[in-house]
């Protein structure tokens, strides 16, 4: 019943940020006009993307092809349920982050704002392109565009620290890009195609030997350093030198999500679940993810800088997504796919709160935040909601996905059944580093009696924070907001048939 | 009765040569006219070359007998898809450079305007001559014409440039000698100088030591001319001390035309069958691969931007030669044969042309040579720096730029010939390119100017439009042509070249 529909919708969605980036440059001298272009494009893009959902839910795939790059490889977009999830997440969050950055950049009177908005729009262009590409080559093109366009954002402050962070960022991610290219070319060499196929490329297993496939998978993983799996994670905490909206972009909207998105694409749509388990790669990937899960949380415990602690939490949560897909079971993959938007909303709340605290009080370290909860109640309540989500506690979206991961482990059976206990340990560690922040903010009294001038951040920043925090809770009661859970079910039933 | 287009090969040369003398005389009367005459001539040549390309693709090879003497007695000009393609590239870049040169030369060489344009026109004549001729001795003559004009043009800035030019003169002459020796050997064995005739007479003699030695001479001779890795020593000095447009021509066209001559000798004088007798091309691959890596490593060590670009050219010539080396063993219809090599000839001309012109713009505006002095340039010269960034990103090979397409095709070709090690070389080279180009981008945009605390303090100070437009044209082509390659629009040219030389999968 899967039908392919030719439509220009994906192109329109992708062109929104591309066109607006040019408009931003042209209207650089008039900040109000410049920012309204960003908002208009963000909303337009979201509407186009969400309008594709009913069509996709009916079991169709929306395609538009431009030209053939290599025999068997077209340059074009092909939107399926999984891609649409990522596209919806990043385009919706773009609206909020744009609002937020208007507040943030203007309050701090940041320099080079035109450059900032220009590259921000380009990064969204890359992210949505990744979400909608129908094969690995197209994906690679947008993947590299995303890497290069985020560099000026990471190094935005232009201080030596920021420059070093930018350099490290590029060194890791472009190196990883070459691995990705190598993996793509090898896949193409073996199978003659790089299209994403439900259940994997059929002739991959017959054309390449077991050892070759294993090596190829390792190259693929190296190609997705954007997913910040350990020990290739250190670019991410370093990149915290960037302004907070950029951190939000990196962590929730685009960059790291592109990494895990890519891993899920490779596991489910290039290798396929059956081939993965036949090669024993599932268990290997689970072990890798578990290692990162625990070690990242241990690192997080040691951080005093709030943004760095959140960065390690992101590394942890990304590995959770990898963990879920590596279980190769129905509910594991379901959890992994759902966690992409869920984690996006929760983590962006946390980052925007961290930024709001910085704008309002200038404080970056947790130890300085005593009593801040009373001065900035809205911000800190939103922060608490996000933190609850990270710790997998109800009533937040995080609970749902963790629940699915545990079920996924049981469903996978065998040696996988010990992993729920590890997830429990990880959740306890989460609690250990998030609750002290909340405690410090609400219950500790600051020594100097607190600065009276501290008050809530500007309204432009509070609105997005409130929205994302609310959405994180709504997801708990109604996971079908923005069609997310339906899309996930459509995607998985394409992959593995019905629910077992 | 020949149709008009079939006269164009000879007209391109004659017009260019006459124009050189016209410039000389007109320059006496009015210095300002030189540039316009040169521009007009090259524009006409470019239009002709496009007609030639179209004619070659639709109606087949053009054979023009000079003076009506039939070959092998007379000189013959033969234009097939390969020459026509190279001719278009070379004239296009020459046109862009001449447009750029107007203000730059008035600024840099105010007393030598006339001689500059005379020599420039002779350079273009020589390059066109090498490209269109079908006679190997005639090719040698044209190689000498363009080399001699290049020596003089490099020396035109005086002082240290004289030394650079002298080194190039010595090495270039040695190269030309080897080339001539090779021709002499072939002539003594076969008694002919016509390429087509040679390719018919040579096959029974492939075992002959003279013929094999001649091939060795060709490799060494042209290897020097095209700065193939161990023979590249003249290049960094020559590139860095020449005026900007000459650097761009040297790097973007002159060494490429020498590569064209090499390809022509390999495939039109000798044939694929000869190349399959000995493992020459396998060795060539390894030489090229070491050139790719060492050129890049040396580029990292440079602080002078033009020297860095020059070493990068050594590495990029490695790309082209690696692709030539793989051409015999990779048989795919799309990326087999000479396709990646020809592709990179165009791509490198665009990227390096743009980069050298930008380097010239920095020198023109603020006399900045060293990368460490580029702080804050991103604000002062936004368009120039943006063009540099685009070209640099292409060199690194970020899609969908031209550099990415070349890299992809060379990787696919090496997989096709089963030489996996070159895949690794290409990928490592990407990272090395990243190191030395990103350093420049970072300094231009991200590092603060010393003493400037206020961001708005540095005013915009761009180069004049006649210099900016060529830069921007080349930079935007770096992306546009990349997409055109990805869409496989120019592939008929490539297919026509490959089938001509009996390369590539479908044809064997």
TrEMBL record, chain A:
It is a multi-pass membrane protein. The chain crosses the membrane at residues 12-30, 37-62, 82-104, 116-134, 140-157, 169-191, 211-229, 249-272, 278-298, 310-330, 342-360, 381-406, 418-439, 459-478. Keywords: Membrane, Oxidoreductase, Transmembrane, Transmembrane helix. It holds the Pfam family Proton_antipo_N. The keyword Transmembrane helix applies. Its EC number is 1.12.98.3. It comes from the Archaea. GO terms for cellular component: membrane. Its main location: membrane. Residues 133-406 form the NADH:quinone oxidoreductase/Mrp antiporter transmembrane domain. Residues 73-117 form the NADH-Ubiquinone oxidoreductase (complex I) chain 5 N-terminal domain. One of its GO terms (molecular function) is Methanosarcina-phenazine hydrogenase activity. The keyword Magnesium does not apply. It is found in: Membrane. InterPro entries: CPA3_Na-H_Antiporter_A, ND/Mrp_TM, Proton_antipo_N. This is F(420)H(2) dehydrogenase subunit L. The gene is fpoL_1.
UniProtKB/TrEMBL annotation, chain B:
Its EC number is 1.6.5.11. It is found in: Cell membrane. One of its GO terms (cellular component) is plasma membrane. InterPro entries: CPA3_Na-H_Antiporter_D, NADH_UbQ_OxRdtase, ND/Mrp_TM. The keyword Oxidoreductase applies. Residues 134-432 form the NADH:quinone oxidoreductase/Mrp antiporter transmembrane domain. Keywords: Cell membrane, Membrane, Oxidoreductase, Transmembrane, Transmembrane helix. It is a multi-pass membrane protein. GO terms for molecular function: NADH dehydrogenase (ubiquinone) activity; oxidoreductase activity. Its main location: membrane. Pfam families: Proton_antipo_M (PF00361). The chain crosses the membrane at residues 6-29, 36-57, 77-101, 113-133, 139-156, 168-190, 210-235, 247-271, 277-301, 308-329, 341-364, 385-412, 418-438, 467-487. PANTHER family: NA(+)_H(+) ANTIPORTER SUBUNIT D1, NADH DEHYDROGENASE. This is NAD(P)H-quinone oxidoreductase subunit 2, chloroplastic.
């Amino acid at each position: 019943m899967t039908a392919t529909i030719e439509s220009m919708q994906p192109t329109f969605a992708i062109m929104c940020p591309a066109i607006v980036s040019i408009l931003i440059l042209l209207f650089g001298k008039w900040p109000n006009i410049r920012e309204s272009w960003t908002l208009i494009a963000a909303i337009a893009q979201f509407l186009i993307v969400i309008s594709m959902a009913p069509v996709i839910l009916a079991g169709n795939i929306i395609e538009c092809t431009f030209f053939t790059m290599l025999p068997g490889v077209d340059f074009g977009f092909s939107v399926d349920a999984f891609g649409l999830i990522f596209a919806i997440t990043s385009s919706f969050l773009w609206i909020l982050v744009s609002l937020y950055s208007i507040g943030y950049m203007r309050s701090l009177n940041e320099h080079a704002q035109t450059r900032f908005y220009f590259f921000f729009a380009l990064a969204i262009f890359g992210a949505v392109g990744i979400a909608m590409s129908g094969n690995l080559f197209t994906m690679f093109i947008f993947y590299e565009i995303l890497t290069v366009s985020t560099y000026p954002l990471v190094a935005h402050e232009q201080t030596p620290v920021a420059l070093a962070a930018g350099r490290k960022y590029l060194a890791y991610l472009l190196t990883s890009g070459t691995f990705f290219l190598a993996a793509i070319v090898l896949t193409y060499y073996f199978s003659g195609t790089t299209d994403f196929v439900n259940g994997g490329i059929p002739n991959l297993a017959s054309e390449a030997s077991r050892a070759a496939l294993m090596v190829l998978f390792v190259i693929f993983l190296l190609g997705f350093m954007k997913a910040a799996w350990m020990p290739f994670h250190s670019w991410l905490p370093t990149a915290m030198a960037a302004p907070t909206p950029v951190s939000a972009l990196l962590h929730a909207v685009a960059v790291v999500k592109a990494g895990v998105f890519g891993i899920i694409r490779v596991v489910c749509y290039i290798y396929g679940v059956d081939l993965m388990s036949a090669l024993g790669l599932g268990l290997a990937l689970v072990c890798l993810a578990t290692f990162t899960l625990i070690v990242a949380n241990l690192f997080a415990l040691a951080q005093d800088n709030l943004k760095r602690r959140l960065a390690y939490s992101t590394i942890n949560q990304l590995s959770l997504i990898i963990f879920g897909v590596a279980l190769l079971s129905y509910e594991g993959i379901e959890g992994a796919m759902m966690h992409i938007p869920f984690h996006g909303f929760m983590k962006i709340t946390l980052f925007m709160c961290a930024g709001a605290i910085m704008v309002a009080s200038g404080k970056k370290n947790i130890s300085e935040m005593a009593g801040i909860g009373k001065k900035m109640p809205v911000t800190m309540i939103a922060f608490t909601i996000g933190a609850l989500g990270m710790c997998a506690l109800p009533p937040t979206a995080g609970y749902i996905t963790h629940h699915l991961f545990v079920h996924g482990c049981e469903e996978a059976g065998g040696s996988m059944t010990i992993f729920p206990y590890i997830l429990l340990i990880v959740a306890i560690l989460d609690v250990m580093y998030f609750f002290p922040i909340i405690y410090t903010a609400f219950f500790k009294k600051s020594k100097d009696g607190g600065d009276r001038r501290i008050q809530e951040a500007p309204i432009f920043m509070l609105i997005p924070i409130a929205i994302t925090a609310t959405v994180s809770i709504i997801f708990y009661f109604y996971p079908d907001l923005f069609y997310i859970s339906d899309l996930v079910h459509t995607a998985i039933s394409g992959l593995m048939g019905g629910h077992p | 009765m020949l149709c008009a287009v079939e006269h164009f090969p000879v007209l391109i040369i004659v017009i260019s040569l006459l124009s050189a003398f016209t410039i000389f005389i007109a320059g006496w009367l009015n210095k300002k006219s030189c540039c316009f005459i040169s521009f007009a001539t090259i524009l006409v040549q470019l239009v002709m070359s496009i007609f030639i390309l179209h004619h070659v693709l639709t109606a087949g090879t053009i054979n023009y007998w000079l003076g009506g003497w039939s070959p092998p007695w007379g000189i013959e000009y033969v234009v097939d898809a390969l020459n026509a393609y190279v001719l278009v590239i070379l004239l296009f870049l020459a046109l862009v450079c001449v447009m750029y040169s107007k203000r730059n030369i008035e600024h840099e060489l105010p007393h030598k305007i006339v001689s500059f344009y005379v020599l420039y026109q002779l350079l273009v004549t020589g390059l066109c001559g090498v490209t269109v001729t079908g006679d190997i001795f005639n090719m040698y003559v044209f190689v000498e014409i363009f080399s001699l004009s290049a020596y003089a043009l490099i020396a035109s800035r005086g002082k240290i440039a004289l030394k650079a030019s002298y080194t190039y003169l010595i090495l270039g002459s040695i190269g030309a000698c080897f080339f001539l020796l090779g021709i002499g050997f072939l002539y003594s064995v076969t008694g002919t100088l016509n390429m087509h005739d040679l390719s018919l007479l040579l096959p029974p003699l492939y075992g002959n030591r003279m013929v094999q030695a001649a091939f060795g001479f060709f490799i060494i001779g042209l290897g020097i001319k095209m700065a193939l890795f161990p023979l590249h020593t003249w290049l960094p000095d020559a590139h860095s001390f020449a005026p900007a447009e000459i650097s761009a021509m040297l790097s973007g066209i002159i060494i490429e035309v020498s590569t064209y001559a090499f390809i022509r000798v390999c495939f039109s004088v000798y044939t694929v069958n000869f190349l399959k007798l000995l493992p020459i091309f396998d060795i060539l691959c390894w030489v090229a691969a070491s050139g790719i890596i060492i050129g890049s490593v040396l580029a990292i060590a440079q602080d002078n931007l033009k020297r860095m670009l020059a070493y990068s050219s050594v590495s990029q010539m490695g790309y082209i030669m690696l692709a030539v080396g793989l051409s015999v063993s990779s048989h795919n219809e799309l990326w087999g044969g000479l396709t990646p090599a020809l592709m990179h000839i165009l791509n490198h001309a665009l990227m390096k042309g743009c980069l050298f012109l930008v380097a010239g713009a920095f020198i023109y505006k603020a006399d900045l040579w060293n990368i460490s002095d580029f702080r804050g340039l991103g604000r002062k010269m936004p368009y120039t720096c943006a063009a540099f960034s685009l070209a640099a990103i292409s060199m690194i090979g970020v899609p969908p730029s031209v550099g990415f397409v070349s890299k992809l095709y060379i990787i696919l070709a090496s997989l096709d010939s089963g030489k996996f090690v070159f895949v690794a070389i290409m990928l490592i080279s990407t990272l090395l390119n990243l190191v030395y180009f990103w350093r420049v981008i970072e300094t231009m945009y991200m590092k603060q100017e010393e003493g400037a605390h206020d961001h708005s303090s540095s005013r915009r100070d761009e180069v004049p439009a006649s210099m900016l437009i060529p830069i921007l044209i080349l930079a935007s082509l770096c992306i546009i042509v990349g997409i055109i390659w990805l869409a496989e629009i120019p592939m008929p040219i490539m297919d026509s070249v490959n089938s001509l030389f009996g390369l590539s999968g479908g044809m064997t």
